[in-house]
Design goal:
Oligomer: single chain
Number of strands: 5
CATH topology of the largest domain: Rossmann fold
Largest sheet: 5 strands, parallel
Strand content: 5-15%
Length: 231
């Protein structure tokens, strides 16, 4: 099996060194390049034919947000996935990173095994957005001024009623299994609806689906189909 090709983008040598040690210890991953600036990250992603970039946000010349935006808009880099590594101080930028095209995010204090699993998840084309992480993202989103991102409900016009319902639940941070339990469906059926919605909305992954849902004006969990009995 061909190893997943990883690029490390961080302006601190010691951070890149630690990341390289963790990544290269995994038999199915290999570091193919390092970058100290966003500009270098874009160039090396192309030259090294990267699969996944571990991207810091704060870097000189071109920051991680701009570099991610550049990569996600370049057809030649369409297969490159960006995993943002963030610290507590820059958490407010996580939503902007996902809007820019990142497939997920992790804190820099992440355990080595969790980092390796995250890279594998991103490489498979899945989003690294656990329910806990998604809820945190949504909390930050709801705390910002609404006119920083205009509502565009027409984005969801092509979805069926069931697909809209499930997208709304995805945007609340529920997993496919939790959505299935809530709607009395099988997890496979939910996954199929999620995939159909992603295709219709041209969403790369679950992370971008959450972003699109919020751009479309979804603000919280959908109402239950039947009211709870009182008493």
């Amino acid at each position: 099996m061909t190893p997943v090709r990883v690029v490390l983008a961080d302006d601190q040598d010691i951070v890149r060194g630690g990341l390289r040690l963790m990544v290269d210890n995994a038999p199915d991953l290999t570091v193919v390049g390092e970058a100290a600036t966003g500009t270098e990250a874009v160039r090396i992603a192309r030259q090294a034919r990267a699969d996944v970039i571990l991207m810091d946000i704060r870097m000189p010349e071109l920051d991680g947000l701009a570099a991610t935006r550049w990569i996600s808009s370049d057809p030649e880099l369409a297969g490159v996935k960006v995993l943002i590594l963030t610290t507590f101080e820059v958490d407010e930028y996580v939503f902007e990173a996902l809007r820019a095209g990142a497939s997920g995010f992790l804190g820099k204090s992440v355990r080595p095994d969790a980092l390796i699993d995250a890279i594998r998840t991103i490489a498979r084309g899945e989003a690294l957005l656990s329910p806990t992480a998604t809820r945190g993202l949504i909390a930050r989103y709801l705390a910002v001024d609404d006119h920083r991102m205009p509502s565009t409900p027409s984005l969801l016009d092509n979805l069926t009623e069931r697909e809209r319902e499930i997208v709304a639940l995805v945007a609340t941070g529920l997993s496919n299994t939790e959505i299935a339990e809530r709607l009395t469906l099988s997890p496979l059926t939910v996954k199929t609806h999620v995939n159909h919605a992603m295709t219709k909305l041209d969403a790369r992954d679950r992370a971008q689906l959450v972003v699109i849902a919020y751009q479309a004006g979804i603000r919280g969990p959908v109402q239950e189909r039947h009211p709870r009995p009182s008493g």
